[in-house]
Amino acid sequence: MKGKISWLVCCLLLVSATVWAAPSTNGSTGLINTPSADVLREGQFSAGYYHLKAGGVGVFDFGMGHNWEIGVAGFRYDSAANRTYLNAKFALAPETVFTPGLAIGVEDIAQDGQRTVYAAASKALPFGFRIHAGIGNGRYDGVFAGIEKTINPVSVLSGNNTFPATTLIAEYDGHYMNYGARLSVVPGMKLDAGWRQHDFYIGMSFTN
Question: Is the CATH code 2.60.130.10 the one for domain 2-207?
Answer without folding.
Answer: no
